Amino acid sequence: MAKEIIESPSHALSEFELQQLIMLPGYKTKEMTSGNTDFSSQLTKFSAGQHPKIKLNFALLSAAMQSVTGSEMAISMAQEGGLGVIFCSQPIEKQAKMIKEVKRYRAGFVIPHTVSPDAPISEVIALANERSYSTFPVVDSGGVLLGYITKNDFDRKRHAGLTVKDRMLPIEKIAVAYDDEIKDNLAAAYEKLVEGHHGSLPIITRDGKLKHIVFKKDVDHHIDKPLAALDSDKRYLVGAAINTSDYRERTKAMIEAGADILFIDTSQGHTDYVKETLQFVKKEFPNIPIVGGNIVTKEGFDFLAENGADAVKIGMGPGSICITQEQIGVGRGQGTSIIEVANARDDYYKKTGVYVPVIADGGIRVAKDITVAWALGADAVMAGKYLAGCDETPTKVRTIARIVDGKAVEVREKPYWGEGSDKAKEWMIAGRYGQNDFPEGVEAWVAYAGTLKNHLAQAKAMIKDGMRKAGCATIKELHDKSVLQILSAGSIKEGGVHDVTPD
Ligand code: IMP
What is the predicted pLDDT for the residue at 429? Predict the structure, then answer.
């Protein structure tokens, strides 16, 4: 919670939104360099003097939404030090498959998809279309590596009737390494790759069984990403959303698939259903952290914390595609919600010695909103719209002509829809908003944003600069030292480009 929130000039509560808050500059020392600005934060609860089970190096989560977080987004979010939460508005098996996809990556060591020597070439073509890579190891029924097949080993038309063994590169022709020589040492695998001029290196046991593949491009990426969010086995962290109807089966499947943390996905978390879900998970699976939500009041926070939530998610109505407030007249401005719930978290900590982190979910339009949400007291932020334009979402880009500033221009866009929209409910079981027969979200488009890596590199640069100019080097310092003020309509105008003729 910030040290001081200046609320003058006074505004109606409905106007008190994230967008209208700005941080005042603070004292910036020479030591506050971009290199030591720290975005890390606790994600799960801990007692005074102890450590949380999960900590993120970049306190940002991608929303559990069909149009935002599949396995590709979750992998990239973890590489950036954040966390992807895979949506639960889909059949349990599909969600479990996405979680497993993320857990196949072990910071450079991939558990590969394999093919059998008798599989038709058409199966390899289908697999390559489905995945972002096209190198498949060929193994026998006992898991022994026989060779490789890549998309360069066959002609799609001419060889469509053949089988994998007819076109694969046999093991005698490929370089391999043994698991007892490489162990967990990515640097040793990298040396072998570079020395041998290879793009990939299978790691096998002494009796020939395939264990992992190391791809050079993954190692490059890993070396590039020292802050990645990893589990104790060096695999990427991933979250799984669950709902309050099929949570018994879904929770078990998510944990078996390897999920590191669960998120109860409801628009109103102060309910008996959420309490029952929390109690079930805590009793049956006491080792998996679980986030409760969404709530926007002190009572909501206390309720979830007392029922065992490891973190609490804040937000009702601030989502860019959300029409909950208009449809049912319930919700709250996100700025006000964060302040009240962060206060409740601090009071709870003083009273019990247990710190339950809070995650601000929804309403992030631009990078500075993340910094402001942290400064208001959030330990982490969850975003949908802000990430929905990136390459890694499960959606496709379109190019379309639009009128921008009176001129017709071609723009690239990606679709983005609410989990409460009719589109999201097509798959349907009684899920997040399943009991309602009216929509609580809309279908929309957002500007194409390129790769997550580049999008977040720019965001991180802006956030760092904002934090330093506010005199804060860490999220904790933002909580303790930052001073925020509400912008009047005139200040918003003055803060943007004004009184000049646009180019
Ligand atoms: P955004 O970052 O402002 O786009 O908000 C994303 C958040 O909106 C999600 O994490 C959800 O909490 C919430 N949300 C997702 N779908 C819906 C919906 O259909 N109606 C209301 N809120 C939604």
Answer: 55
Query: What confidence category does residue 14 fall into, taking pLDDT thresholds of 50, 70 and 90?
Result: very low
Residues 12, 242: Cα–Cα separation, whole Å: 35
Which stretches does DSSP call E strand in 92-195? 105-106, 109-110, 135-139, 145-150, 169-170, 177-178
324 pocket-lining for ligand 1 (C-beta < 6 Å): yes
How many whole angstroms separate alpha carbon 456 and alpha carbon 442?
Answer: 26
| Architecture category of domain 109-217 in CATH | Roll (3.10)
320 Cβ closer than 6 Å to some ligand 1 atom: yes
Q: Give the angle 361-366-368 at the CA atoms, nearest 5°.
A: 90
Q: Give the predicted TM-score (pTM) of the model.
A: 0.83
Q: For residue range 488-497, list pLDDT tens digits in order.
A: 888 778 877 8
Give backbone dihedrals phi and psi of 120, rounded to 5 degrees, phi first.
-70, 155
Q: Which residue has the least CA distance to atom 21 on ligand 1?
A: 322
d(CA 114, CA 141) in angstroms, rounded, equals 11
CATH architecture assignment, domain 13-105+228-495 = Alpha-Beta Barrel (3.20)
| Residue pLDDT, tens place only, 45-81 | 999 999 999 999 999 999 999 999 999 999 999 999 9
Q: Which amino acid is at 180?
A: D
DSSP-derived secondary structure letter, 231: -
Quick: pLDDT tens for 269-279: 999 999 999 99
Which of 35-39, 40-44, 184-188 is the most confident on average?
40-44
Question: With contact defined as beta carbons under 8 Å apart, do 212 and 178 qualify?
Answer: no
Assess contact for 461 and 402: CB atoms under 8 A.
Answer: no
Nearest residue to 239 via CA among 255, 222, 221? 255
- Ligand 1 contacts CB of residue 415 (under 6 A): no
The residue contributing the CA closest to ligand 1 atom 13 is: 319
The DSSP secondary-structure symbol of 25 reads P
* CB 385 near ligand 1, within 6 Å: yes
- Residues marked active site are found at 322, 432
What tokens appear for 436 in the block? 């309602």
Specify the ligand 1 atom closest to the Cα of 313.
12
Q: Does residue 310 carry a pLDDT above 90?
A: yes
User: DSSP character for 24?
Assistant: P
Spacing, Cα 362 to ligand 1 middle (Å): 6
Beta 358-361 vs 380-383: how paired, if at all? parallel
Instruction: Please name the residues in contact with 145: beta carbons below 8 A apart, sequence gap of 6 or more.
Output: 137, 138, 139, 171, 176, 202, 204, 208, 209, 210
Domain ranges in the chain are: 13-105+228-495, 109-217
